[in-house]
UniProtKB/TrEMBL annotation, chains A, B:
Protein name (database record): STAS domain-containing protein
Organism: Nelumbo nucifera
Membrane association type: Multi-pass membrane protein
InterPro entries from the UniProt entry: S04_transporter_CS, SLC26A/SulP_dom, SLC26A/SulP_fam, STAS_dom, STAS_dom_sf
GO annotations of cellular component type: membrane
Length: 628, 628
């Protein structure tokens, strides 16, 4: 019979291997492929287009696109203004910082960003986390200037961190926040955020600064005497209004403008009500005086040495990761809907630069918001010009309309926040996780309860820990399966799955479904010997021909380390002592190389390595017949 | 053509899956298999034998075995007495504690342990770590009683931790200390230990309490005025003697007794010299008066509440893990040489109980020592009786021979320790790691330098971190390969490895060599699209027939999670938009189940799933021919 040899991968020097590995780690998408075989001028143009995507779509921009972008830009502006004010309050920052943050960053993103649908500005999760992390050490009411300084500094570090992730092409770090984790984390954060709004909705003055569910709820019910019925009535009516418009738009995506216009409508209506009845209504707190004018420079506000620097850096890194995750995920979602690509590492640089610049222009951390980007997409945005239109609208507001917000009640901001974050509670996704993967569901729930009962950071840490643990568990206790032959073919498949497959007499064919690592080599050794023992027991009971050969199908052993090689060596020795031949089949390239380099193959006899299970069986069977 | 269907694994309830998973995690060796189908009496006997292995070999014990055990027992006793005293000093404990620890624990192990060759007693690494961890907070010279109390308490917690690992069948935790890590860690620890002995060898009185290489070396050269030439001459001569005997025994294992007898010979010789010239020699410090008598009970010494309890628990857990790792590794090594099995979880219980009992009988943490077990093995030990013989010899020493140690110079203990630990520096193993696996070598070196320059615990933590990171890196950036057909067969193999393999026109066959997880789903999606792009570029250049179908061989995709499923769904959509068919081949059981449960398979057309690449290609080619 014709037996095929198992080949070694082509020889490579350590340097070549390192180069290949590093390019796979850092440049999996081969970002320079467009530059190959081009003239220097084209290279320059391509380079400009690479760093400033505006050069890519700018030359083809026309009036029709502009019309779409103006409509969508105005729509998201009407959402961005009330949300900006609300999210700034969520981060315990002055409301105007939220408007500043909706002006400068979108302009920068329009030049650097590669997504056409991302609507940039402050977002709920990052605002919450920033407010909560800084608030643990510094009080925003007692030291508002220090708090603002730290927020701006955290934004600077968030930007530096994001841009360096992109520059160093370490974008894969955000992949460690799995979808499952995020579902739980977002839902927990949304509940925390909504509960925080009870302060505004009930008109409570003395409220806990903590974020966990228990102190917040006890704070709500300890101060029932502070509940203000006027505030409650106004808050609940507008909340009902906002939720209804949201429901309408979710049902019919064509009516997106209903929910998009609702927040601004609520702000205007409630402001008019409060203004009209200002002599009669008491106990409704309002935003108060806001300063006119565009973003003041804030480079002098950065807090670059002192006892809280560590806190600012930590807050920056965590909010940086979170906002990056949201921004990239949103960008990818809408890119895949319109079938274009968003380069993760480039987006990171764009978002990072935007935050670095923002921190010097009185902006706190910003990214692509999911809710506003969805509205942007539905409103027909075609390019990043919609962000420019939005920024222009915010500019007009900053310059001329600020006095109008003086009588806007705070309660309305709470209602707007609740309506915005309630969409983050994706119970359907959680149910899908439960159906498909119990461990993913567990990771999701740990994040959820971690955020609710411990803290936002702890919830995140727990969830990442559970996700990692899941990977390690899979590696520690991998599947081993017994294979059988599907009659009339050369196909060998899992006996317990394929009823039609049958055992090959005198052979035990095992498949290992995992890399063989230090973490599982002892287990695999034990487990394989147990398979052999059980097979021998079975043979003894059924009086079949005795076991002569164990075939180890290594197709799914994707990697091996020195402990794994040791385990194979030990197994061979043990089986040899029991007069059972041990055969390896189809090791993948990397594994084959290591087996070769460790010289373990020399200890196998001539017939110790085959390319397919079928060839191994037929070749060894013929040997058995030759020497019975 | 006959096409085989891909089967789902047999249906199981959540409870059945959970039961199977848990039994694989906790009972991979099926420890109860011997109890199946046995009478109640046999079950009782087997149960007794399971918990007390002495009942297994005891009944067949005979005079011939006893003779071997007495010889080996006396041999290891001659090694255990000087080493016991030395290691206790290494842990900053009174020397007699080392002798106590060589008496009670071996007796307990003889009853409970399942290894026949393990020589039980104090070991260097655990002694070093215990001394160093406790010494960071409590000075052994200023508060010797507190220090001793903490050491005993740490021993108790080490025992509790070890026994519970065994009882809860969590033995796999020690697998996370990979061989590569241990090589580096041991070598680093050996160097630290040897450098510590410079204090004794040079006769320095004022020596640093720190463990890192830099303070130790500066301490050595800052106190050159304290160097005592008598001590140095004596120390170096005996060190040379011990190293020579060690060299002889390593070269000729038959002469094991040369190195086994050398430490005791050195102790006797040096004691005689010091005693004879005691009037003339000054500056040689000696052990001094040791109390006669067997282990005093020490349950009243346990430190169970107070500020240092946390320290004792932490020290207990770390020394517990380290001593467990050594004990189990040694047990397994010699078991595999004699072809018997050592049950890891049972050994953990035995070692744990031995330490728990030891902590109440003035013993500090003990385990199976590698060096003494090797001597035990070479001296022909047959059963755990050699441990009993050794304990009896130690008993005689404790009762009658203690005054003889009064004039034993401390310098000789230093020489004995250096000789014992020098074998832990396994540079050949490190070189082998370099040859076979660069990342393993990196883990090894991190542990080595971490121990040398930071601290023993940090070195350990770094090494475990690097090992974990290696697993995660493999998962984050898995291999994807392009497969081709080996002409005349149904074998599909890596094109870059098998020169004979050739592309199938109109098809791109990709193999993924890793689970598809949240940590790599974005990467794989990008990478696969890049393969498609590169294939299309190649086809365009060589004017071949256009790409019509991408076949994804999932044989080596050993698991998938919800993010992975999402990636497959996205890929299918993207390829569909480009009019390329997307086909999955041979998902393993677990993956198939999740694909099924997530209903993603319904989105594939009828011809979206095949059992082998060959069948996929021939079936789809015939379809292409039917509808050109």
């Amino acid at each position: 019979m014709d037996v095929h040899r198992v080949c070694l991968p082509p020889k490579q020097t350590v340097f070549q291997v390192l180069k290949h590995r590093l390019s796979e780690i850092f440049f999996p998408d081969d970002p320079l492929h467009r530059f190959k075989n081009q003239s220097p001028f084209t290279k320059l143009v391509l380079g400009l287009q690479y760093f400033f995507p505006i050069f890519q779509w700018g030359p083809n921009y026309n009036l029709k696109l502009l019309k779409s972008d103006i409509i969508s830009g105005l729509t998201i502006a009407s959402l961005a203004i009330p949300q900006g004010i609300s999210y700034a309050k969520l981060a315990n920052l002055p409301p105007i910082i939220g408007l500043y943050s909706s002006f400068v960053p979108p302009l920068i993103y329009a030049v650097l960003g590669s997504s056409r649908h991302l609507a940039v500005g402050p977002v709920s999760i990052a605002s919450l986390v920033m407010g909560s992390m800084l608030g643990e050490s510094v009080s925003n009411t007692e030291e508002p200037i220090l708090f603002l300084k730290l927020a701006l500094t955290a934004t600077l570090f968030a930007g530096i961190f994001q841009a360096s992730l992109g520059l160093l092409r370490l974008g894969f770090i955000i992949d460690f926040l799995s979808k499952a984790t995020l579902v739980g984390f977002m839902a927990g954060a949304a509940i925390i955020v909504s509960l925080q709004q009870l302060k505004g909705l009930l008109g409570i003055v003395h409220f806990t600064g903590k974020m966990q569910i228990i102190p917040v709820m006890s704070s709500v019910f300890k101060h029932t005497n502070e509940w203000s019925w006027q505030t409650i009535i106004m808050g609940l009516s507008f909340l009902a209004f906002l939720l209804t418009t949201r429901h309408i738009s979710t049902r019919k995506p064509k009516l997106f403008w209903v929910s998009a216009a609702a927040p601004l409508t609520s702000v205007i209506l409630s402001t008019i009500i409060v203004f009209a009845f200002r002599a009669h209504i008491h106990g409704i707190s309002t935003i108060g005086h806001l300063q006119k004018g565009i973003n003041p420079p804030s480079a002098n506000m950065l807090y670059l040495h002192g006892p809280y620097l560590g806190l600012a850096i930590k807050t920056g890194i965590i909010t940086g990761i979170l906002s990056l995750t949201e921004g990239i995920a949103v960008g990818r979602t809408f890119a895949s809907l319109r079938n274009y690509q968003v380069d993760g590492n480039k987006e990171m640089m764009a978002i990072g630069l935007m935050n670095m610049a923002g921190s010097c222009a009185s902006c706190y951390v910003t990214t692509g918001s999911f809710s506003r980007s969805a509205v942007n997409f539905n409103a027909g945005a075609q390019t990043a010009v919609s962000n420019i239109v939005m920024a222009a609208t915010v500019l007009v507001t900053l310059l001329f309309l600020m006095p109008l917000f003086t009588y806007t009640p705070n309660v309305i901001l709470g209602a707007i926040i609740i309506t915005a974050v309630i969409g983050l509670i994706d119970y359907r996704a959680a149910y899908r996780l439960w159906c498909v993967d119990k461990l993913d569901f567990f990771a999701c729930m740990s994040a959820f309860f971690g955020v609710l009962f411990l803290s936002v950071q702890m919830g995140l840490a727990i969830a990442v820990g559970v996700s990692m643990f899941k990977i390690l568990l899979h590696v520690t206790r991998p599947n081993t399966v017994v294979l059988g032959n599907i009659p009339g073919t050369q196909i060998f498949q899992n006996l317990s799955r394929y009823q039609v497959a049958s055992r090959v007499p005198s052979f035990l064919i095992l498949g290992i479904e995992s890399p063989v690592y230090f973490a599982n080599s002892a287990y695999l050794q034990e487990r394989i010997l147990r398979w052999v023992r059980e097979e021998e027991d079975r043979i003894r009971e059924s009086n079949e021909s005795p076991l002569k050969c164990v075939v180890l199908d290594m197709s799914a052993v994707t990697a091996i380390d020195t402990s794994g090689i040791e385990a194979i060596r030990e197994l061979r020795k043990t089986l040899e002592k029991r007069l059972i031949q041990f055969v390896l089949v189809n090791p993948v390239g990397e594994v084959m190389e290591k087996l070769h380099r460790s010289r373990i193959l020399e200890s196998f006899k001539l017939n110790g390595l085959y390319l397919t299970v079928g060839e191994a069986i037929s070749d060894i069977s013929s040997l058995f017949k030759a020497q019975p």
